[in-house]
């Protein structure tokens, strides 16, 4: 269906506001697509009260030290960093957050057989909670815990208040099952994501700054395989200039509007 790119390819990066009639063109691509894949980032969850990383109120913007500490070496060598990591896990808004209209719109798109694979960089678990299936979590899930030495998932643990729990098997500190800087992404997740974007007609890239690799390379893989890449984001990103189309707006507004327009 999309063996050749639509003529608008020549106008790559053209910006459409939510109310823009050009959205009709994106709606038509989605309507005609046989296999849509979505890549999400922290921006899809900001409407659920979870801050992104690099925005004005972002986790890394407000606390650059936390970004520098988000690696295994700091976690293992610095007891205060370990405690801070666990405090964050226990107090983070992800625990009480609920899926928003953006997450729910993707569930609808999947139930209609339009959305094939949903790839997320988010660790908040909100796509599962919304009911999405065929989900690829590139950066893990903060709801899971694993041994920092053996990498095995741990279901139950005990620790005195304020202490970091340890692995019952080897005694190493337990850690969230998320990918920190300088760590490898789960191989099976990367393989599934690359396979999905190479086989899609349309890749919707939602709420990501597209600055973190290898996730940021997925739109390039998709375009090389002939897919149309549509960015949904209120702000300009590293992807905007290369995207085939850009819908400027919040995911919680643009996604439900697109899905509703398919009716
Ligand atoms: P960033 O914080 O880098 O980017 C968030 C993007 O979401 C920005 O481009 C915002 O403009 C956009 N945004 C904000 N609110 C939005 C909304 N309501 N609707 C749509 N877009 C919105 O977050 P990510 O790109 O997800 O890694 O960051 C990638 C990775 O960097 C994260 O997974 C994390 C971080 O280090 C790990 O934790 C391993």
Radius of gyration: 19 Å
The share of residues in extended strands comes to 15-25%
CATH architecture of the largest domain: 3-Layer(aba) Sandwich
Described by strand count, sense and barrel closure, the largest sheet is:
7 strands, parallel
Q: The CATH topology of the largest domain is what?
A: Rossmann fold
- Integer average pLDDT: 90
User: What is the 3D shape?
Assistant: elongated
Name the bound molecules.
2'-O-acetyl adenosine-5-diphosphoribose
What is the C-level CATH assignment of the largest domain?
Alpha Beta
Could you characterize what this model shows?
- The chain is of the alpha/beta class.
- It has two domains: 10-48 and 99-139 and 184-263, Rossmann fold; 51-96 and 144-178, SIR2/SIRT2 'Small Domain' (2-Layer Sandwich).
- 33% of the residues lie in helices and 17% in strands.
- It has helices at residues 22-32, 59-62, 64-69, 72-77, 79-91, 101-111, 126-130, 187-198, 218-224, 251-261; strands at residues 15-17, 36-40, 115-120, 135-137, 140-147, 153-154, 174-178, 202-206, 228-232, 245-248.
- The strands form two sheets. It has a seven-stranded parallel sheet with strand order 1-10-9-8-2-3-4, sandwiched between helices. Strands 6-5-7 form a three-stranded antiparallel sheet, with helices on one face.
- Helix 6 (101-111) packs parallel to helix 10 (251-261) and helix 8 runs parallel beside helix 9.
- The radius of gyration is 19 Å and the shape is elongated.
- The chain starts with 14 loop residues before the first strand and ends with a helix.
- The chain binds 2'-O-acetyl adenosine-5-diphosphoribose.
- 2'-O-acetyl adenosine-5-diphosphoribose is lined by residues 41-43, 46-47, 52-55, 58, 121, 123, 139, 178-179, 207-209, 211-212, 233-235, 237, 250-252.
- 2'-O-acetyl adenosine-5-diphosphoribose (OAD) is lined by residues 41-43, 46-47, 52-55, 58, 121, 123, 139, 178-179, 207-209, 211-212, 233-235, 237, 250-252.
